Amino acid sequence: MCDYCTQHGAGERWYQNVRNYSKELESTSHVRDFCESYFSRDVPAGTDGFTSILDRISRPIRPNERDRVDERYSKYLHHQVVTRQEAKQVLEIASHQTDEHERAVVRLPCICRHISHGGDKDLRCFGIAFSDTYTRRFPSYLGGNHQYVSAEEASETLDEWTQTESIVHAVSALGVPYIGMLCNCDMQVCRPFIHRQRLGITSPWYKGHYAAVVNDTKCVGCGTCEKACPFGVIEIDIESQIARVNPEKCHGCGVCTNHCDDQALDLVAYERQSGY
Ligand code: SF4
Ligand code: SF4
Question: Is the shortest distance between the CB of 204 and ligand 2 below 6 Å?
Answer without folding.
Answer: no
